[in-house]
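Reply to dn_fold:

You asked what the input looked like. This is it:
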Amino acid sequence: MVSLRRALVVLVLSAGCMPSPYDRAARTDTVEAYRAFLREHPTHPDTDAAEARMEELEFEEAKRLHTVLAYKRFLSVYTDGPHARTAKTLLEGLRFNAAKEAATVAAWRQFLQEHPDGAQRDEAKRLMAEVESRELATTQDPRRLAEYLREKPDDPRRLEVESRLDAQAFEQAKAGGATKLFGYLKDFPAGTHREEARMLLLELEVEGLLVSGLVDEAEARVKGHPLGSKLTAFPARLSRARAERAALNHPEPLVRAAYVGHYLRDIEDLRRALVAPDALDRWQAAEELGQHVSVRVLDPLLDTLRAARNPLIRQNALESLRTVLAALPRPVAEYEIASRLDALREKASSAEMYLTVAVLLDLSGQLGQASTEYQRAFDAGVPDPVVLRRWVDIRESRKQPFSAAVAARQLAVWALSVAREETVSPEGKVPLASARQLCAAAVNARFAAAAIARARAASTEFPEDLAEFERRAEEARRLSEARLADAELLLREQTPGVRTCADRGVSERLEGGVKERTQALASVGAKLPQVGRVLLELARERDPSPEVREAASSRLTALKPVP
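and this is what came back:
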């Protein structure tokens, strides 16, 4: 019994000598130890002491690292602790030194944004003003100058900065082409270089007339324009244009065979065909107009794209616009687009005008802005098959097969509705316009089916949706082709010899012209040395066919250089 009591006494005494959980954490004295203590003993009487010591250790570690990230991490946890003020001061010092080393306005602005009430705020503002003055004196960026003027409208150097901004903006516009020049005229209504900008635009306008073969019109434009006398390079350019015209008018048959105009109806005939009663005549005229590399065809094609009812007429107008603008010299094409956009943007308020703006932006390579305008022009209740086809092409080029298939499905739905709604009956006779509309439905249904098939081959996402899209497109194709066949059979009964949807008379003539021009250009340099080089140069620079341009370029390379 006595021995048991002694054992209990020894046990009690030894238990009194064991360290507490906090003492064990304190002996280790690390953040991890205190964190474990707080996690395991959240109600222990020494939790405050543990938290205070853990904050001290965290602050010592932040000071040891002495980086922006270290102080930010510390302050994110101990926002109002006893060391927070010191940490903020040290963080401000680091950022101040970094901004001072960077020595840019942007760096100082960032510092002041992060420490708006910091101890070094006034010094930062003073140094930022010094840097701003240096940047202002040396910057070649008009955007930076414009930003400065917006921020400090009452700066005493305003007139000097405005003058430099004007000069620099004009230099950029001068190097940037027509779009930039129109932008300069809009942004600088009192600019000192406005007349020079207008002269450059006039040069581009006149060059467009010259490359279109409108030599007399170009000469008249320069003579009649107030700035015409200042185009000092025009006489030499006019002389070269006359030599080009003389070469094209050479009586040798080989010359005619090498020139695209020999295979085409003239522009006025095609303009009249654009309002012919038969839609087939109109879409073939729109196709053929695209072979005239002339600024004179742009407005008729834009008007047709905007106003024609049959989608095939409008589709051919769009493709012809692309062909002509690609064949014109790039500065001229940019001018023709920019001048029309400059006029349209001020008055565009209808779906047709939005579509015109979208197409011009699209053809100039500004797809981001074009997409916005296409969306503004699009009415889901009355879908436009021309816009839908363009969306398919754009999305395929962006490697978005499913998105392209969605647009193709909408196109198939449009074709299906046309096939169901157009009237075909022997009693009422088939209106020619209905047969041509069914032709458009069939053509677009085939296009949609082919696009969806490509999407199924390229995409593994949403296979069930793509399968449904494909069924719908196939339904549209079968029905539109069947209704078209019925309509054209009735048409042939009513009007023997009437042309059908499959008529390729114009296309075949244009394709034959490409082959004949290519053959003629192969020998024109050797057989007609006096005009051969000029003809080859014209074909290389202005023929609408890439195949012909490539052939002309190869022949020019093979010719002996001019001595």
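The CA atoms of residues 254 and 520 lie 6 Å apart.
Hope that clears it up.
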